[in-house]
Amino acid sequence: DTAVSQTPKYLVTQMGNDKSIKCEQNLGHDTMYWYKQDSKKFLKIMFSYNNKELIINETVPNRFSPKSPDKAHLNLHINSLELGDSAVYFCASSQVGQGGTDTQYFGPGTRLTVL
Amino acid sequence: GQQVMQIPQYQHVQEGEDFTTYCNSSTTLSNIQWYKQRPGGHPVFLIQLVKSGEVKKQKRLTFQFGEAKKNSSLHITATQTTDVGTYFCAGSGAGSYQLTFGKGTKLSVIP
User: Which residues of chain B fall short of a pLDDT of 50?
Assistant: First the structure.
């Protein structure tokens, strides 16, 4: 069974459209994240959710909105897509135990192409 | 905010040569993690270092955490084509579990 899954794997869309990417984890983790990886492979954290509460928001445009219906899911909704949004988006999860950071498990990624 | 710098950005080696990537933080880290991302894949956790001066080995990979807990390195002995990929370090500061990733080192191995 896949630990962290994302859908879709590929997303090609026109500028100005609204799209969503879904993420699910079956690890029982309490924290989930969204990362953006650009063409230069830089991994940048966008959001994280801990027990359904947003705890990090790395000043991404408000066109991006994370939505967590429960602690196993963290979806990413993007309004008014722009060319610069083209990237690979990774979902990840972790169990933040005592002592701080724990291992992050990444999903397979969603390659978003905005035309 | 916390910054994690990683060098080099790219490294091309002949198969059998050694490879090292270095990671430096602007602040003291509570721990550092290393991830590997194969071409077309997703980052996969390799190891976590927590203690000052810690050294851990995984077969041909050696990971070090500096005494001041502000730098780390990953050394691969006798590279193989299966080592190809981008290696990321990621650190978090004291009292925080937010990971800051370095920009990664992309390793190419020439057979």
Answer: none
